[in-house]
Each structure stands twice: as structure tokens, then as C-alpha cells.
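Subject: Sanity check before I submit

Could someone independently write out the C-alpha cells for this chain? I want to compare against mine line by line before I put it in a report. The sequence has 134 residues.
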Amino acid sequence: MARVDMDFEVDGEKQLSRFFEATGSDLKDFSNIFKAWGKDFRERQHSVFRSEGAFEGRQRWQELSPAYKDWKDIYYPGANILERTRRLWDSLVSEGDPDHVYSVSKNEFKIGTSVPYAIFHQRGQGVPQGRLFN
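---
Independent answer below. Compare away.
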């Protein structure tokens, strides 16, 4: 038997770790599995954004402050939470987006975003005051 370890990390924090056992000859090329995971990831991100975080039993994202909500309603009417310019959204749901991180090989899979402010939202911090991003 061979053992295959899979770790899922966000910002260096392990989110999930699993191992699988099977015959060694059957575990040489995971690229088709990884491609399916990529499609699933993009579909799930779409659902996360559409539900503003309330997806698969999770809580909805924190409401905008009243002042920011008023400003956003004027300058970005109809834009949901985390969708002011849709840059983050596009980077997570669109494989062809320039900020979409996606690579697949026989034994490695990476997917995510290169949008610089995404990490602040992942950590639940929001973008620090004085940091402007598009």
C-alpha cells in the first residue's frame, strides 16, 4: 500500500489534512482529480459570494458599517458585500481571470487568488484603513 498525504492551507494555516491509502501503481497522476476540484472550487466560491458567506451552514458575512454602506450605495449601487469592483469575485470564480491562481500537475494542485487584499478578508479583518486597492 502507498500513502498519499493531502494538506489544504490558507495563509499558511492548515484547513484540512487527509491521507489516502491505495496501491502505489494507482497513485501516480492526480491531475484529472485536481481539475475536477478546481471546477468545484470555482462553483463553491460563486455560491459563497451569492449568499454573502451564508453557505453550507456558515454565518453570513458581517454587515457593512452604516457609513460605508451609505457611501457604497451611492458609488456602487447594487454591489454586494466584497463585490465593490468584483475583482476578488472574478479572481475566485473565473479560471481565465489574471488574478486567478490555478496550477495542476500530476501531484500538485494550487488554486486561489492573487488579489492583495483577499487575505485581510480571509482573516476577518477587512482592509486596513489607509490601504487603497481596486
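---
OP: Matches mine. For the report I'm noting this point. The radius of gyration is 18 Å.
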